[in-house]
Amino acid sequence: MYDFDTPAPRAGSGAIKWDLRASVFGNGDALPFWVADSDYMSPPEVTEALRDAAARCVFGYTAPTEGYKRAVAGWIGSRHGWDVSPEQIVPSTGIVSELAAIVRCFTAPGDKVLIQTPVYDPFADVVKAAGRTLVENPLLCDGSLRYTMDFDDLERDLRSGVRMMILCSPHNPVGRVWTQAEVRRVAELCAAWGTILVSDEIHWDILMPGHPHFTAGLAGTPENVIVLTAPSKTFNLAGLRCSNDIIPDPALRRRLTEWKQARRLESPNSLGLIACEAAYTHGAGWCDAQNAYLAGNAALVRERLAAGLPAARTAPLEGTYLMWLDASFTGLGSLELCRRLNAAGAILNDGKRYGAEGFLRLNIACPRAQLDRGLSAVVGCLRGAAE
Question: Sign of the CA dihedral 186, 188, 191, 192?
Fold first, then answer.
C-alpha cells in the first residue's frame, strides 16, 4: 500500500543531508547516510493535509487547536498506553531547542546534568552551552555489542547532587529500546535523589519486532518527569519544527510555559501543527509499514556485512533507524574512517562525536536500493582500510 522504494527528490531542495555533501564532506556525489531524516516520501495523508492548508492561501499566526491536542493525546494512548490529557501537552519547536530551554529553565549555572554515553551529541552541547556541569554515566557494552545501563554508577552519580538526567529512549545511536524494568529503575533512582528526569522519546514509534517501547511517563512520579516527543522522525517532518512536551505535573508545566513565554519561544510552526495532527490521526498504518520496511533494511545491513566484512559488528537494532557499527577492527579512528568513506561514496556519522572512537552511525531510512549501493561502498572501503 505504501511505497518506500521510490526515492524522494531531495537533492537541490535545500536538504542538509543531500545539498551539503560537497561543502562539508568534499564529495557531492556520495550517498548520504548521516542526518537522521528519511529519503522516502512522508505519508500521503500528511501531504494531503498540507495541500489543503496551502489552498487556503493564509499563513498567519496560529495556536494549537483542540483537534491537534486530541490527536497527540490519542496517539500516545493508542500507541504507548499512556492516558494523557490535552492540558498536559506543551507544543514546542523541536526536541533539541526544547532541551536547551528545559536545561536553562530548571537548573542553575554549575548544576549537574547527567547523560548516558555514547549518546546523541546535542545533549552535551546544550548542557555545556548553558554553563551547567556535564556528568557522563557510560553505558555498558557486552560481547554482542548490546548496551545496558550501569545502575550502580548511575546511583552514585545521582547521589552526588545531579539536578537533571536526560534519558535517550529509544537510544540514539546504540539502538536500544529500554525495557520496562530498566525505565522504571531509572525513574525510581531519579525520584529517590530528587533529580528531574527528562526523557527524549523522539524515536518511540520506530521499533523493531519484539521490542515494545515503555515510556518514562508511566514509570516516574509526575513531579519529576518530562517526556519529549515529536512526529518528526516517525513521519519525516523535522523541517516543520513541531514537537510536544508531555508534562503531567502542573507546577513544572506552568514554570516551563512561563519561562518560554517570557522569551517568546512558545509558538510552533503552523504547518507543523497541521502535519502533526494529520500524522497522529491517520498515520498508524504508514508507521507500521515503515517499521516493517526498516526491519528489512536492517536485515540487509547484517547480511551484507556478514558476507563481505565479517570483522565488522553492528549493535542489535531494537529501535530507531540508526545502526551502530563497530569499525575498530580497522585500527583507524572514526574521523579517518569517515574521511575514507566519504571519498569512497558513502557519508556516515563518526562515532567519536557521540563518545565512541572507532564506531560509525548508519541511517537506514532510505529506499533499499540506495542502502544496497551505499553498503557496497562501506564494505569495500572498510575492507581496504583493514588490509
Answer: negative
| pLDDT per residue as tens digits for the range 124-148 | 999 999 999 999 999 999 999 999 9
Query: Residue 360 belongs to what domain range?
Result: 16-43+285-386
| Residue 115 backbone phi and psi in degrees, to 5 | -130, 160
Please check whether residue 5 lies inside any domain of the structure: no
As a whole number, mean pLDDT of residues 181-185 equals: 98
Task: Answer whether residue 220 shows pLDDT above 90.
Answer: no
Same domain membership, residue 167 and residue 135: yes
Please check whether residue 134 lies inside any domain of the structure.
yes
User: Cis peptide leading into 118, omega within 30 of 0?
Assistant: yes
| Gap between the Cα atoms of 206 and 319, Å rounded | 6
Confirm whether pTM is higher than 0.85. yes
Residue of 292 and 385 predicted with greater confidence: 292
Q: What is the predicted pLDDT for the residue at 289?
A: 98
Mean pLDDT of the chain: 96
Own/partner long-range contacts of 369-373 (Cβ < 8 Å, ≥24 apart): 369/5, 370/7, 370/31, 370/39, 371/33, 371/297, 371/300, 371/301, 372/300, 372/304, 373/31
Answer yes or no: do 37 and 87 share one domain: no
Query: Is the residue at 1 inside a domain?
Result: no
Query: Cell 513544572 identifies what position?
Result: 252
Residue 357: burial class (beta carbons within 10 Å; 0-12, 13-18, 19+): middle
- Domain count for the chain, please give it: 2
Integer angstrom CA distances of residue 20 from 14, 16, 361: 8, 6, 18
235 lies in the same domain as 110: yes
| Peptide bond preceding 170 in cis form (omega within 30 of 0) | yes
Contact 1, 287 (CB under 8 A): no
Q: Looking at residue 225, which CATH number applies to its domain?
A: 3.40.640.10
Q: In this model, does residue 221 exceed pLDDT 90?
A: no
